[in-house]
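Minutes, project check-in
Item: structure for the 223-residue chain
Input as provided by the requester:
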Amino acid sequence: MKFKITSPYGELAEVRNNIPHHGIDLAMPEGTPLRSIGDGVVESVLDLGGENLGKGVIIKFEDGTTGIYGHMSDIDVKPREIIKEGDLLGLSGNTGLSTGPHLHFGLKDGAGNWSDPTPIVEKVDAMSGDASFGFGSWFLDKYNGFADRVIGGQVEFILKPIGNMLRDGLIEIGHILTEFMPEIGGFLTVICAVGIMFTGNAPKWLARWGVGMMGVIIWLTAK
């Protein structure tokens, strides 16, 4: 996660008169963009001054739950405004009863009871900040990690043998050309080696450099 949880759900602290914390706090710089974690409607916009949540937004989501964003510095939505997942709500801040810049996020269930938002904290985190593009970005990050492992396995079991075959073929061609046409063979071998070294993507470039250097060594030792 980009932002650290500084106060978990249910925590008892003197700053709240030892009343259980009805949400989670995420430390983040003042002015961090905050986006809705779901489709819904703005139930109310708060401005409590130096008390409680200070500036905040309350959203009624389509699943019946209610999200509370607190301690904001700026609000970009209005009451009864219909919003979509990923829409900008405003900016994080340090308003209300706060000891430092952070986002307070609270959650209520369909019956209006406080609910632990920890299971969705990664989505709240993903929807916050300039580098985030919402849940889609979070999902793609997870998918890409999975895809990298799968594709990596395929490269190891399918493409690697092909690469080894091409490498062996290049070495054999280098031997033949160097034996019968030393100058032409050496030149072509170096060209092939350089081509191999500068093609492909990381992390395969180390292997490619190794193959390329082998070609150069073949040419030098055959002279």
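Outcome recorded: The CA atoms of residues 155 and 162 lie 10 Å apart.
No further action items on this chain.
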